[in-house]
Amino acid sequence: NTPLQLKLPACLVIPINVIISQHIKQKPVIGQSALSHTPASLHINQTQHCKLLPGMVSSQAQLCRSNLELMQTIIQAAREVKKTCQKTFADMRWNCSFNRNPRTREAAFVYALSAATISHTIARACTSGDLRLCSCGPIPAQILEPGYRWGGCADNLHYGLIMGSKFSDAPMKMKRAGSHANKLMHLHNAEVGRQALRDALVMKCKCHGVSGSCSIRTCWKGLQDLREIAMDLKTKYLSATKVVHRLVGTRKQLVPKDIDIRPVRENELVYLQSSPDFCSRIDKQGSVGTQDRQCNKTSLGSDNCDLMCCGRGYNPYMEKLVERCHCKYHWCCYVTCKKCERIVEKYVCK
């Protein structure tokens, strides 16, 4: 299969060759390194280490110097963006491969996911004690019904959103950040990602009581897993709105291209240019094609072989699977299983 290589947006990309220019100029620049590829052995624990991460705008560099622990969390977030994006789009023709056009719906998704991920990772780092400048989230003012009480350690979403947006949006708020349309698109989609994160803050509870009676429940506000947030953003990706940069009143704004009688909604992803179909390899458009991609012959979804292979056909191959089987419970208290092998037929696109 073609190796996956995710192009992160300027908010999470810190390349050796100053790749941030990709989102400042129309002409894309291929970076050689990104935060997601930062060696695990590299620990940002001294201010001079910030110089090892060239490509940051001045406000990002200042944030790095004043909060070194935060940079480790941001690097972790970059890795999560890449991993989560690839899992979320494993069944689609576009599977988070390198995308040279920052104006497409794919770029819109990556910006939204990046903004959500960085704030999500910071919020969780506060809860786990990895960041000394923050702690658990505040106790809600909401009065709970009898048998429920606030407690535990809530995810500090407030701090995550503040610090995440401060780092994520910095490149797009520079005067030299290129096309006004691009800036508006990326800032809007980043905010959509953070709104999806706000919507993912739910009440979680733990039972207390004699013999599991659950007479008392201790509750806190916690974030859903990033995978669920990514799936929500994937739904928004599939229904994203194409927009144009048009004069509205005294200033230019993004308005829906085909239904410009209404403004852009706060919870919808927007994009400026249509994407290729990702069927064939077109390097100039960042499409790696679907040749050799695995597909599902019986699926009714986007991973169906006819859809994934774009009508080119597919080749079958046999694969041996080793699974646990004939498991038996022993008193007390362990389980033993045997290993069973079976041959399954799988398919890859021609």
TrEMBL record:
CDD domains: Wnt_Wnt11. It comes from the Eukaryota. Pfam families: wnt (PF00110). Keywords: Developmental protein, Disulfide bond, Extracellular matrix, Glycoprotein, Lipoprotein, Secreted, Signal, Wnt signaling pathway. GO terms for cellular component: extracellular space. Its main location: secreted. InterPro entries: Wnt (IPR005817), Wnt_C (IPR043158), Wnt_CS (IPR018161). GO terms for molecular function: cytokine activity; frizzled binding. GO terms for biological process: canonical Wnt signaling pathway; cell fate commitment; cell migration involved in gastrulation; embryonic viscerocranium morphogenesis; heart looping; neuromast development; neuron differentiation; pharyngeal system development. It is found in: Secreted, Extracellular space, Extracellular matrix. PROSITE patterns: WNT1 (PS00246). Ligand for members of the frizzled family of seven transmembrane receptors. PANTHER family: PROTEIN WNT-11, WNT RELATED. Belongs to the Wnt family. This is Protein Wnt. It comes from Sparus aurata (Gilthead sea bream).
